[in-house]
């Protein structure tokens, strides 16, 4: 784990759909092939930042309110709700302009399938992730949601109030534009080099002793810009509908949790044997994750049995999307403990009787 972790974090970043994300993919592919595994590359288009689409949505809300034109405001509300509910608006494909890729490797064979998933891309920072601000991230999001939902109604019944809200969304668009031009991508040691190296280590430990199971290692790109890689994988037909999907994200520091579901706006509970077994074994606490989304989002929406492991401090991923997300702030013992918990979980499911 340490060698691969260092190779990934030696890159300044692995920004979604950037040249350095592609370089990280080549590092991962070479590592796996060097260990004797075949690697399939799934190529797709994605944005390099969530900023442009949110700038567009904020502008629709701003000018719909300022011009007192409710159809434009309603279009902004539609875009906001669709984006943060994990859907795809009719304009989303215009923002998917750059090359990204998933890496898939397989071991074993049989009627049952386990997917070990982790994203390897990193995000741009923003002032909302500053250590003094990030504790209010969920509150800020709920405020934005409330304003986005009421804007079309304000336009109809209180034009003066609508213009005030319009100025708010105009300021938000300006701040997002400033972010696009000035904010750096973070190194992403915790988010999510930590998950990648544990997923690969777990995959390698599983591979020799599989019986009746196929295990698919899925290293996804462009998670930070809307789980684009996971969405592509879920649509690809490569994952059987009865597969178990275990996702590892931000596991380098803090207390270990297993998410019982996820959703920023519409919450979706996880179902199936993974969550049932997680409730039965010790080592991690349950959490309803509403802060953001995971790569499990498109799989949970399709009824897959999903589970995400994450470590949190005070309810937040440590150093979340901030320049301090560096190797110095990742605890190697946290990685080892997460690996052991995942091994125990999978052994309880019978994936590999020889894991312990």
Low-confidence parts: none
Instruction: Give the biggest beta sheet.
Output: 9 strands, mixed
Category by helix and strand content: alpha/beta
Q: Which word captures the global form?
A: globular
User: Assembly state here?
Assistant: single chain
Strand tally, please?
9
What percentage of the residues does DSSP assign to strands (E)? 15-25%
Classify the helix fraction into a percent range.
40-55%
Q: N-to-C SSE series?
A: HHEHHEEHHHEHEEEHEHEH
- How far the N terminus sits from the C terminus, by CA atoms, comes to 19 Å
Radius of gyration over all CA atoms, rounded: 21 Å
The overall average pLDDT, rounded, is 96
Q: How large is the count of helical segments? A: 11
Q: Can you describe this structure?
A:
This protein is of the alpha/beta class and 356 residues long. It is 44% helix and 17% strand. The chain has eleven helices and nine strands. The chain has helices at 2-9, 19-34, 51-66, 70-84, 137-157, 159-182, 189-206, 228-235, 273-280, 297-301, 332-348, and strands spanning 40-46, 98-108, 112-119, 213-220, 244-248, 255-262, 268-269, 285-289, 305-312. Strands 1, 2, 3, 4, 5, 6, 7, 8 and 9 form a nine-stranded mixed beta sheet that branches. Helix 5 (137-157) packs across helix 6. The radius of gyration is 21 Å and the shape is globular. The model has no long low-confidence stretch (mean pLDDT 96).
